[in-house]
Structures are given as C-alpha cells and as structure tokens.
Amino acid sequence: MTARALDELLAEGVRGRHVLVRSDLNVPLEGEGASLAVADDGRIRASLPVLHKLAEAGARVIVMAHLGRPKGEPEERYSLRPAVVRLKELAPFTVKFAEDTVGDGAKSLAADLQDGEVLVLQNLRFDARETSKDDAQRQAFAEELAALTGGNGAYVDDAFGAVHRKHASVFDIAAKLPAFQGDLVRTELEVLTRLTDAPQRPYVVVLGGSKVSDKLAVIDNLLGRADYILVGGGMVFTFLAAQGYKVGASLLEEDQLDTVRGYLAKAKESGCSFILPTDIVVAEKFAADAAHEVVRADEMEGSRFGASGIGLDIGPDSAEAFAQQIHSANTVFWNGPMGVFEFDAFAHGTRTVAKALTGSDGFTVVGGGDSASAVRSLGFDDNAFGHISTGGGASLEYLEGKALPGLIALDR
Ligand SMILES: Nc1ncnc2c1ncn2[C@@H]1O[C@H](COP(=O)(O)OP(=O)(O)O)[C@@H](O)[C@H]1O
Ligand SMILES: O=C(OP(=O)(O)O)[C@H](O)COP(=O)(O)O
Questions:
Q1: What is this structure's pTM?
Q2: Peptide bond between residue 82 and the one before it cis (omega within 30 degrees of 0)
Q3: Residue 181 placed within a domain
Q4: Which CATH number does the domain housing residue 344 bear?
Q5: What's the rounded Cα separation, in Å, for the pair 324 and 398?
Q6: ipTM surpassing 0.85
Q7: Atom 13 of ligand 2: nearest residue by CA position
Q8: Which of 150, 91, 148, 142 is nearest to 117 (CA)?
Q9: Residue 287: what pLDDT?
C-alpha cells in the first residue's frame, strides 16, 4: 500500500472538519526570555503551503509540533510561542495558539475553531507520552490528540524532519484517524530518491553537527552507498578518539568508540573512504569570544589549553581538503555544520563546505534544521544548492534505506 496524498483528503472535502497536521516547526531561536525569536524561519515557510491549502479549503486545522528536546514537561525556553508569532506574520489565515497540548485550553480552542482557521498546540514534547518508548503511553496520547478533532477528523503528516521518529504524533496517531501524506513529505521523498536510485558517482556524504549518537548510527549503511564520507562537526572527536588520539574537552561519545572502530575497519572492505580532518580549531571554552588556535588533529591536547581545550571547528587545511573532495563529486549530501557556525570565529569550516557545494556541477543536497539555517545565516542563497531539505536525521535515515516510522504509519 502507498500513502494517500493530501489532495485525496481535499477531494473528499474538509470544510467544517477538524484536520490535525503534524508540522516540523523545530526552528533555531535567538535572544532570551521574552525576547526569544526565530533565528531561521525555513521550516515555518516550508510548512505554510499545506496549512494554507487546508485553510483555503475550509478545514479547521490543528497543528502539532515540537521544539527542541524538553524532558517531558513544560519549559518556557522550549515554548512554540516564538514560532507561532513568526507563523502569524507569514500566514494569510488566522493563527491561534494553545498554551497546552491536550488540556482544557487546547480542547476549548479546538472546539471553537472556525472554518479556515489554524490552531497551533504547545510543544508536544511537554508531555512525556509523545516520545515514550512504551507503546501504550504513546497510544493514549495519540488518542487524546485525535479526540481534539471531535469525530470526522483527519490526520496529515507534513513533518518531514520528524518522519524518523516513532512518536505519538508521527506514528501512533495515524492509526486513530484517516491519515494522509502532506506535500512537503512527498516532495522531500521525491528529491531524495535521486540520491537512493543510482546516484551519479563519485557520491560524497558530509556529516557533522552535534546529534552525534543519532547520526553515527546511519554510517553503517552509508558505507555501502557512498564513495566518500567526510566527517566534521561534533562527530569528529569520536573518530579521532577511536584512533587513540586525545580530544580534550570536545564533544565525545565514549560508548560509541567501538562502533566507530568497526566503521573504520569496514570502510576498508566496502570501497568507501572516510576523510577526517587533519587540523582542528581548539578553543579555551564554548563561547563566541573564546581564545582559540589551530592544531593538528592528532595533537589536540598540544594546544595551549591542554586537556581543557574544546574543538569547535575543523581547521583551514581540512576545510580546503573537504572542498576539493566536494568539487570532484557528482553527488553531494551534507548534514550537520562543520563547527559551531553560530560563533563567527568557528564558522570557517561550515562556510568553506557550503561554498564548495554552491560551486559544484553535481547534484547537491543540504539537509537538517541547523545546516539549512547555517547556510542561510552565512549568506548563501537557497537556490545555490540542488535542494535544501528540512530534515537532517530524517534524510540520513531515508538515504540509508531504513523503513521510517512516519512513512510506515501512512502505508498501513
Ligand atoms: N565541534 C562542535 N562541538 C559542538 N557543537 C558543534 C560542533 N560542530 C557543530 N556543532 C553544532 O551542531 C549543531 C547542529 O547539529 P545538528 O542538530 O546535528 O544539525 P542539523 O540540525 O543540521 O541536523 C549546531 O548548533 C552547531 O553549533
Ligand atoms: O531538527 C530535527 O532534526 P535534524 O536536526 O536532524 O534536522 C527534527 O525537528 C527532529 O528533531 P529531533 O532530532 O529532536 O527528533
């Protein structure tokens, strides 16, 4: 079976019906407290077309989304309010915000929705049941979310960035309501198919960022698919440590060292080469104005900061080597910034890799909330890349050929 498209739901008619839409509004924020604001609205813009289509057709739309990784209870810094403020500025329809997810406030706002209005629920991850490993917990939460539609409702999954999550709003809810695939998910999959079906070689995958344990897991399958895997960002240090080098106070997944050693050994047999940085920008502390210096990757603790130094970017030689590799590729997929690009002093690696992609004659895809935000904040135009995907982990898991919960759920 294949997923039913949003257009099939629209053909059925949605006027007066409540439609629950899972969107990915997990955007980077800047500022503090009451002045927290959206730093990059790419995911909000990408979510707009489906909401607009439904609102125009007279649906009473309820948006479910998450922001960050709160621990199952409300935390102001993870409120979806700033994202909703931005959505209101962009949307040609009425947008309301519920301060809760399935509580009395949300229930009453959902019941009062008018045709063509959109209600955004508070961060789903303020309820521990959303991400629970216990099926019964997630299903109970999905049931309560579905109940907001008051019967005769429908569900649309448009959150491509979260299709790899077995969460209540992505997986379980599709069994509670007639379920449809949003246009964003559909388009993303169409584009990514170009990378899974006979990609033009050489095929280079560039990995970085900070969700290290999530993304290390995808490498196993990528080894059989890509020709080169370039490793930067927070992921590097587990690779360096796996080879016996000291990495100071850098991001390190100690429990993944054996896994990484396995990858390094497997790469030799599978015809895929890892390209690791040969130099690193080591900083005194994690701060925009931190003192820093470039050192050899195999001598990180030789910097003047010793064992307390933190690697915050790949060094200039490595950035140049990565750029050369990208120039000689015909297909490039990139997820995860090469360093802490949010701080100018540590943005060079990310900028160099982004520039190399824009100069490539091959098919280039940038995936991930922060990666997309990085290229935009560094001044690159979206059109300079073959495709900017809203999903980092989601695209990687799709590229490794894994069955993704959000897609399985719609195929049931
Ligand atoms: N060396 C590093 N140490 C710590 N954090 C890093 C490092 N390099 C990159 N990062 C951080 O990784 C974050 C993005 O990671 P991630 O969420 O995995 O990417 P994406 O959202 O594109 O999938 C950025 O906020 C960036 O500051
Ligand atoms: O930001 C996201 O993924 P990404 O950083 O891999 O692009 C998605 O919103 C999923 O978030 P999660 O990785 O906290 O489940």
A1: 0.94
A2: no
A3: yes
A4: 3.40.50.1260
A5: 27
A6: yes
A7: 393
A8: 91
A9: 98
